[in-house]
Amino acid sequence: MKKKVIIFGVSGSIGKQTIEVIRKNSHRFELVGISVKENVKILTDFAEEFKPPYLAIYEKKPLTLSYNPKIFYGREGLEELASIDSDLIVMAISGIEAIYPTKKAIEEEKDIAIATKEVIVSCGELIKEWLKKSKTKLIPIDSEHSTLFQLVNTFKKREIKNIFLTASGGPFWNKPKEYLENATLEDVLKHPTWNMGRKTTIDSANLINKGLEVIEAHFFFGFPYSAIKVLIHPQSIVHGLIELKDGSFIAHMAPTDMKIPIQYALSYPQRINNSFSFLSLSQKELQFYDVDLEKFPGLDLAYNVGSMGGVYPAIFAIGDEILVDLFLKGKIKFKEIIPLLENIIEDWKGPKDLEDLEMLEFLAKWVGEQVKEKIRY
Questions:
Q1: What was the pLDDT predicted at 377?
Q2: Predicted TM-score of the model (pTM)
Q3: Which of 78, 142, 200, 309 has its Cβ near the most Cβ atoms within 10 Å?
Q4: Pick from 306, 150, 297, 299: which is nearest to 218 by CA?
């Protein structure tokens, strides 16, 4: 029997690659729903190919199709799509807005393969409370968290001393700190090993992405921040490691191809044949370096806000989302992202706990106002 799948954010990098996995495994998966924010062209192409009976468009736009699916619109439309009969929801919407269909899917007890790290970072404590009342399984898609999901679940937690996230280091890991001062958008988007969306690529260049992943790892696996380590690994072959209490290290290696962890998330708990790229270790070097926190202070900031908990990870994730968008639009320089983020976090004098989604909406508005006030765009 085919597994019924809904993809939220089908026009993004993860969404498109999920389509590739389903296309290659059409005997295993049935696409019953897809959503986009506003890219009607991509929605139309995939709808005509797979004929899913349900579609959702966040921004209401006209759509012409050769068949008659049910079409939902807006935030409510995403929540309605999350309620449709399915076996697995792939949450690949970029940004905080993904929290609403995620909450609905948990209430409906749908399993979720999640790639939206901003949701986990911002609302991890809320999501844990929702999951206590649901049978939903949350399966990570990010290559690093997919790796740790597989490694950590192989051992008893008490046997594990530390978990390690690896970072390619982006385009600047071996450049002097001064190089980052004048980095252009073109420089920042030259990721050496991964082909990702623009937001993730920018976050990888200043290691904010790895900081988000550290907070995400704390949520998924429950290790204290002192036991979550980061290593620069330029080859991007080892996607994660665990250190056992006896001094042994266990590593997970795979190609730099997001379709591998996506396929694992779709097929979990089964493991199916790889239809994509394979890894050869012949004549490969594996190098690991500590992170230079003077060059990449965003990682240190992430550890701090993660340890503070409450509203602070949400301010961190929301602020970064807004600032990256402004950098893409040429309103701020790359080097300004982290100092602005630090200032916004320091400026918050309100309640420390994230009590509900209304509080999250208030935070999103407040952070937006703070950014406008600081850079006057």
A1: 62
A2: 0.93
A3: 142
A4: 306
